[in-house]
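FAQ: What does a ligand-bound record look like?

Like this one, built around iron/sulfur cluster:
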Amino acid sequence: MIVYNCPLVPFEFFHALKVPFRRIRPNSIEFQKLHPNVCSFCRSAVCSVEPNDVLVWVDSCDSMRRAYDFLKKTNRSFYLHVPVKNDKVVLRAFADELRKLWEKLKETFNREVPVSELEETHSWFLESSKNLEKALFEDPYKAKELFESLSNQEWIGSTKKDTLKVLLVGSWVSEELVKFIEDSGACVLNATCSGPYALLSDIQMKSNVFESIASRILSKKLVCGRFSSDRKLSELVKSFEPSAVVLHTAKFCDFYHFDGQILEKLKVPFVSVEENFSSGGFEQTKTRIGALLESLKRFSKPALNFSYFIGIDSGSTSTKLVAIDRSGNILLQEILKTGADPKESAKRLLMKSSQELKISHEDVFVVATGYGRDAIDFAQERVTEITCHAIGVSYLYENVGTIIDIGGQDSKVIRLEDGKVVDFVMNDKCAAGTGRFLEIVASILETPIEALGEESLKSKQELNISSVCAVFAESEIISLRSKGYHKQDIIRAAHEAIARRIYAMYQRVKGRPPIVLTGGVALNKGLKWALEKLMGVELIVPKNPITTGALGAALIGLQQKT
Ligand code: SF4
Ligand code: SF4
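The answer part, i.e. the structure of the complex:
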């Protein structure tokens, strides 16, 4: 089996030699022997190479070069230098390299294939890739068939059309991501290197087949950030007219930074997501894309068949429920510990509330949000917490500029304009800047967590906890305590450390006042004080700061999507 790493390979060789071939693809295993700054796509895709595979390896980038250094020790391998420039001299040299590769592959697989057969295959390839380009916009199903027959790669993109259109650019994307976007009600054109664009070119067949194949590869259409000089991102955006663009990059890949600037100038709604292929799930990516798509839908017409609307926000620490009537009046707000089973807690909360309100299930429209929303299968609608917080807070206050939500396990800063989400940042990986950090502080200082706020306001001495990492901060707190500093002063320093972390997130999204502080930690007066001191503005805390996400979910139920 031939295994290739990048779609800028001479596919015609593989077809003409009639040798099975496939592309490497990421999985959740990580190749540990590579340097930690090798990109996450490469680290996990290298694991899909089997010992008997014959490699045709494009020198795509530093990461791929380092992977090659390992693989060549165990596998029969051929290295292909694809030049970045495309002029006559470069083209001839590349054609010569391709001719040598052709001879070596024939020898390796013991095939006697005349050049005339390669010419025929190349002519078929060019013809089919032109048909593929036409079919991309008109007949995606036909495009899928052509793409799969040319590249032996599974089609990763839509075969249906939809009113919302998402253009994917950047590095390799998976079927899972495309499916997620489709399930959110949009169709996808994949212009990353797992899509069809590396196979498309405008060239006419040349008399020398190697020069012709070289020319096809060098004049490929938009795909790869490494060949940034000929990326035609603006043209693609203008011809596809996407509702939104997702700029998808791999961790430690630097090739697509300029695409963000181009997209900003084009004024097309877009979101940048960075994936760590080897870490498995991609919850944050889903939330970012989900929030972008939700901002493009309009929630405006009242739903006709229900009298009550319930929003359930399934967070990692607690599950929140808000019930409203058809006029948007809040009837009830409930909170329960989430525990090990988010679906069970949501169900219990729903039953309890229905009994209290004396309403039957047929009368209720349920919208789920929060990290556990996918588990709540009895909800009629699932919406990201970003959108729900924006709607909930905007219902309570007018012209909000920024929401800072600090929960037990995560924190987020959301920038709004006219009640709509324009940018946001989430921290769900690191304890610093979340309620988890306060739990650590409370347990070291043997103080109930609810008392931290009041205690820190009694502080008389300024101390400094310099680390932003919860683990190091923990040892700093222990050391301050052993030096005899007062609890109140240490708690205040801990609040100030969290505030610095949150402020950095606020700056990243270019936040602006008025700022509403939500989440369980919003009730901590000491943290509010530390944030206000650092930011120089007063923060608004709603009466029930924990339930704003659930309120937003309930309000979405009240409004039908159009
Ligand atoms: S991103 Fe570019 S160089 Fe890297 S594998 Fe894809 S096409 Fe090849
Ligand atoms: S994602 Fe970027 S760094 Fe990784 S292989 Fe592709 S081009 Fe190279």
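Follow-up question: can I read anything off the structure? Yes, for example: The first helix runs from residue 11 to 17.
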